[in-house]
Every structure is written in structure tokens, then in C-alpha cells.
């Protein structure tokens, strides 16, 4: 009788174990890519730094369809501060220089997809040639989504867009060189803040020159910057990255949307 009872218990436990639902796996820790655009154009691109509005729209669609959340540089700072990577892959959308297409072409699509972006301004060129005006910068910086969030922020691409490290040899000493760095970083920051009423905390290096250079990083810190976006190819893979050497993915004329996946998957 005892043997029969034991057998029945074993069978019952086996059935219970088989019918129990397995616990879902927690979401995988993701990577962060910083996408770097320049000019958006309506027709075919005429140089490698242009991207057609059709391709830009496909990029945004790709992010949405693949549930790649678009975050900001303040979110990147929070990753570094907390030591925690986001759950799932994320992206930061950035633009360099200050082309009018940001306002006429990029802005409507970003609003359509409700995605954030950071725009790095070459401030000495504002309102000249094909660049934005300060009025358009102000309008974009004050735009507010229904929930109260401001989707567009502005960062510095320096005042006159010069090679920051490449110019060093032309100065007689380190003091003169640092005065040059301070002017390029401080003047652009002050101008943008005067027109947007928001602290400028992120710098994008012109031509990607000087990534990781200690003097440029020191100049950024003493002028109130907390992040530097470089042109170093790569993605943020762990929370112990350097906020002053943030890598990026250049979105060029010949860049396929598949490259977004490659960077996020470490291919």
C-alpha cells in the first residue's frame, strides 16, 4: 500500500511540474548607439554627408518597428551615474553643423515619430548661407510635446568649427592654446544658451578631431560641459564608458539601416 502511495505522489509531482508555466526571461541588457547626421535633402544626396529625407524617414521607422527607444544625453549621463545599462537597445539621434534642413525636413519627421534629437550648432554660421536662423533655433528649443516634454535640445559644435587638436601646433605655448579652446567652447555655449534659455552640456568635436585628448577634455569640463560626442565608430556597451569619449554611428549617404542593427549587436 505504501509503495502504491509513493508512486502516486511521484506521478502527481511529475504532472504538476510539467504543467507549471516557465518564468519569462528578463529583458536583455541593451546597447546604446549615437546616430550622427548632417544635412537632410529632398532628392538624391550630392555628397557623403547628406542623407535623403526618404532614407531618414526609413531610419526612424526602423527604430520604431524594432522597439529601439530614442533617448537623450541626459539619459546617457544617468547610465554612467547609476551604472545600469537600459533594458533593450536604445539610440540617440544627433545632427552636426546647423543646416536649415533640420527645421524644414528633419523636424516634421521627428515630431511625426515623436522622437528626441540633439542638434550641435556651428554658431558663427547661424543665419548664413544654408544655415538655420536663431529664430528657428529658438522655435525648435521651445517646442513642447503634449506630455510637456521638450524633444529638441541643442549642443555646441564650437564657435568656428576648427580642428581643435590640429590647431595646437600653431600656438606658441599651452596657455595660448587653452585660450583658443576656451573661446571656441565658451563662446558657442553662451550664444546657444542665450537663445534657448537651456544649459548647454554636450559638445561635438568638429571633424571628430581630438577625441580623448586630455587638454580638450579639461577645457570642456572647465567650460561647463558634461559630455563629448566624438566621431569614433562604436556603440556604448557597458555603463563604465567615458562620458567625454562617446562613440557614434555616422549616418551617411551610403549607410544602410542594417548598420543600426550591426552596431547594436556588436557585428
Structure description:
The chain has a single domain (31-264), classed as TIM Barrel (Alpha-Beta Barrel). Mean pLDDT is 91; it is low at 4-8. It is globular and about 55 Å long. Helix 7 (214-222) links the parallel strand 8 (202-204) and strand 9 (227-233). It has 267 residues and is an alpha/beta fold. Strands 1, 4, 5, 6, 7, 8, 9 and 10 form an eight-stranded parallel sheet that branches. It has a two-stranded parallel ribbon with strand order 2-3. The chain has helices spanning 2-19, 53-65, 73-82, 101-112, 134-142, 174-196, 214-222, 258-264, and strands spanning 29-37, 39-41, 50-52, 69-70, 88-97, 117-121, 152-156, 202-204, 227-233, 246-250. It contains eight helices and ten strands. The longest helix is centred in the last third of the chain and has 23 residues, at 174-196. Helix 2 runs parallel beside helix 4 (101-112). Helix content is 38%, strand content 19%.
Percentage beta strand: 15-25%
Distance between the termini: 63 Å
CATH architecture: Alpha-Beta Barrel
Number of strands: 10
CATH names the topology as: TIM Barrel
Radius of gyration: 24 Å
Oligomer: single chain
Top-tier CATH class? Alpha Beta
Structural class per helix/strand content?
A: alpha/beta
* CATH homologous superfamily caption: Glycoside hydrolase/deacetylase
In terms of topology, how is this protein built?
Elements: H1 2-19, E1 29-37, E2 39-41, E3 50-52, H2 53-65, E4 69-70, H3 73-82, E5 88-97, H4 101-112, E6 117-121, H5 134-142, E7 152-156, H6 174-196, E8 202-204, H7 214-222, E9 227-233, E10 246-250, H8 258-264
Parallel strand pairs: 1-5, 1-10, 2-3, 4-5, 5-6, 6-7, 8-9, 9-10
